Amino acid sequence: MSKTIVGFMLVDAPHSALNNAGADAGERTDNIVRVKAIQKGKKKYPYVSGQALRYWWRDTLEQRFGWKMSPISREKKIAFTSANPIDYDDDDVFGYMRALKAKEGGTVTRVSPLKNSPLISVINQAPTQDFGVMARHEGNPVPYEHEFYSTVLKGIFSVDLDSLGVFYSTEKTGYKNMHQKLEEIAEERGLSHEKESKKWTMPHDVRTRRAQDVIKSLPYLQGGAKLTSHLTDVSPKFIVLAAIDGGNHIFMNIAKEEDREAIIDIEALKEVITEYDDSLLTDVYVGRRKGFMDELEEPLTKLAGENSKIHVGTIKETVDQFSDKIPELMKE
Amino acid sequence: MKALRVLIKGWVTSFRYPAFISGFQPTLPVPPLSTIYGLISAAKGELVTPEDLSIGYVFKHDGKAVDLETIYELSGLKGKSNVIKREFLVDPEIYLYLDDPEYKKYFEHPHYPILLGRSTDLMNITEIKEVELAKKANVKLGKTILPFGLNGAYGTIQALPTHFTDTIPRKAAGTKPFILMNQFFDYSNECCYDEEMDWGVWFHR
């Protein structure tokens, strides 16, 4: 059995420009800043790249949860983290790659236990083109063009609980997390060690705290471009959380576009929960911020009434209730 | 023949052209075999290679877009960060065929999170079905990769690995020329045929 937390979220983005694509060489003027968007036929879907979302997440964990972030060393043009998942929470949860000299142990890599999709607009939406000016200096103001959109973005993520706080020194792709010095640190810090599989495991409480922080930081997610002029609250307004046996991302298809509005497909959610009943390791927790998709209140309450394994609450309640299940999940 | 058909869907994906190292990274129109063996390995939890089973697939998507990405270019111990444009495919779905129905259990409870392409390309296993494939001539075949020189097939030709080893550093194995056939064509010879989907399935053996 493998254990994975799977999550789904919606981010409300009214008048936002969360992730920009810069200017294109083919633009008619040289100071247009475009938002990132996917073109499907005639339709456009703004999005935020997966990389940007990870940046926000990492930043929130540092700001609000006091995560010990791996110091970055810079050599000429490249920056590395320390690649020390024992002392630094982010190296463990977000993964790393670092080239070391052969005598230091060669290249070490770690696949991130936390994986996330980009945030993609549920509805098609042509970004609004707007003018801005730089007008603080004396003389003529300098105009520029930029874009923004009003939409609801969907995203999914997973946390591989089996690999969180677990490091290997095996000579196998994706498994070489450790080098000699790191193994010395592991020994010193008293990590449990399985000689045969070359596996080091952090104490249960550290692994639990890291997993809980990742989930508990969601209501405080902050970041995004153009905060000064758009100030988008990027914390999720709708969220679904569960742990399953296996790595399938079961909540991918519960949001859809209907009459140019983003909606949650309650029937699809119901179907997923029933069909994966044998894979679910926890109940399913659904959270929603009041004022966002209020039409969901009734069907969600009904759903929770019909199925005792579904819990409905505010975002904070949902995240807290689910986090309470993590210590049990982290046990062998 | 009996086969397992697995439908896997996602939101975005990108398959790197092995030869490109410039500031623009285009995506292959269909995934290489190595990507699929990687996905099957993730489901099983250990390395799966063409020696373990044969596969075929039909891959569809809904369009293309370009992302701006920070990458780290490494060469030995030196490297530098760079911003590149990376092309990606939207709403990908793949009908994956395996000649060993025993793999059903791995797709029902995949060991690792299922990804297709990059690490942000999370996927959903939507349907797992055991199917009976007939042999048939004059079928539509395509939206997949095909061996170089296959009668009637056309498209970009690219040398691609069939799988990777799990050693450090990992090595590309079984590299052969393939035709990236991103549409259907009428194949006149006999091949496996999925009646329900009405298309031919090319198994790479």
TrEMBL record, chain A:
InterPro entries of this UniProt entry? Cas7/Cst2/DevR_sub_I-B/Tneap, CRISPR-assoc_Cas7/Cst2/DevR
Q: Which GO terms describe its biological process?
A: defense response to virus
What keywords would UniProt list here?
Answer: Antiviral defense
Q: What does this protein do?
A: CRISPR (clustered regularly interspaced short palindromic repeat) is an adaptive immune system that provides protection against mobile genetic elements (viruses, transposable elements and conjugative plasmids). CRISPR clusters contain spacers, sequences complementary to antecedent mobile elements, and target invading nucleic acids. CRISPR clusters are transcribed and processed into CRISPR RNA (crRNA).
Any idea what this protein is called? CRISPR-associated autoregulator, DevR family
Task: State the species of origin.
Answer: Methanobacterium paludis (strain DSM 25820 / JCM 18151 / SWAN1)
Automatic annotation (TrEMBL), chain B:
Keywords of the record, alphabetical order, are: Antiviral defense
* Taxonomy, superkingdom: Archaea
CDD domains listed in its UniProt record: Cas5_I (cd09693)
The answer to whether the entry has keyword Lipid metabolism is no
Q: Name one GO biological process term.
A: defense response to virus
What's the protein name? CRISPR-associated protein Cas5 family
